[in-house]
Write a structure and sequence with these properties.
Distance between the termini: 65 Å
Number of strands: 2
Helix content: over 70%
Strand content: under 5%
Amino acid sequence: MTAFAARLASARQPGLGPATAAAVLAAALVLGTIAASADGLRLVIAAGATLVFLILAFAFPRALLLLVVVWLFALGTIRRVASLDTPPSGLDPLLVVGVLAVGMLLLLASRRGAFRERSALANAVLFLSGLIALSALNPLQGSLSAGAVGAISLLVPMAGFWIGRTLDDHSVAQLWKLLGALGVVAAAYGLAQVYRGFPSWDSFWLETDGYEALNVGTATRPFSTFASSAEHALLLAAALAICIAYASRWSRLVALAAAIALIGSALFVAGTRGAVLAAVLAVGVVTLARLRTPLVPAAVAAVGVVLLVPTLADRLEPTTYATSDAQALTAHQVEGLADPLGSDASTLRLHLELARDGLTAAVREPLGVGPGPITNAPRRLGGIGRPTELDPSNIAVALGLPGLAAYLVVIALGLSHAYRLARVRRDALALAALGVLTATLLQWFNGGLYLVALLPWLALGWIDRRGRADEVAP
């Protein structure tokens, strides 16, 4: 590339002045230096993606959000393919692209008035964001750099709230339809991993960076295009809820039934029971809102539906299973759902213990220990690690009692507004937004969910502005 640029600079072509030739030569030298570095391929991909996002921000801002969603959806696969060339030597530059892209979207949203005419929910989100930003300075987390990275990990998805406040119905419809389509792609990829095996880039990642929770006996949980099996399963749950929300017209029913069957099958063999329960809850809540069931009876009915899952799973559980990976994952799923508190078949008891420890930590450390410990930052930056895997306890660890109180206010206002809007409008947009919120509930602040963590905040922002515009009554 450098030799080509040198020949180009020395060529006497009409219209090629010294300044242009020097610029081409400098660009070639920079790209050559980057490509020769340890993270060369990643830096080139990151720079190219950032340039595309920047061009879209100026030329086609409405398309930027959709492309960012596609980027975050494919990020895990992009990183794994790049690792075949050279594993990252430090902080992966590909992770920075999403942060910059969301920053561009936030800047555009701010210019459109995202921070004006704030509601009680918007003020609660702003207050919680401020607490997270301040907590980056908390010395108890062991490393200020871990605190800064941890705060960014939490604040970037939360920026989706302000972006969502500027979305019109057409933009939200495009977003939900895209996510439904991506759910089908994720389901197909995940099923291929289970039934046909992992491609070379996924196998290499499993050997070098795979984590213990991926293993279910001799089987491996599918993770599709994502960085974790948990994000794969949660995206499937959200996509399933979106498909159910749109399944109201006979003209769509055949295609949606096929998508629902594919996504549901992939979700069941994903080996993540929490996502299955979240999907059941989301489908139930969407259905109750469509039937215009009042909020309190709907909440009781939704909890009842979830509590029925162990009984149904116990009756459907076969006595024996085959030895394939798919059957091993199915056995893991059914046995855990049938006996959720059994220590042998389910890890629910362990998750509850982690949540309890996180909530009680807010009493011992009422101002928290900072955001770093609940994200992936400590592993790279030398801080302490105390993830609890659920939002209330994560926030209690990071922000203490003030943060936990602010989080509960956001949850209470957000879910009540979402259900009220869906119950009154009963259209696919509002029902899908409610489904996304419910399918990802308690996972809005879990580190490493690069796409899934953004979705509920986008939905919540649109609900906040749309509810006020429609003047929805209780």
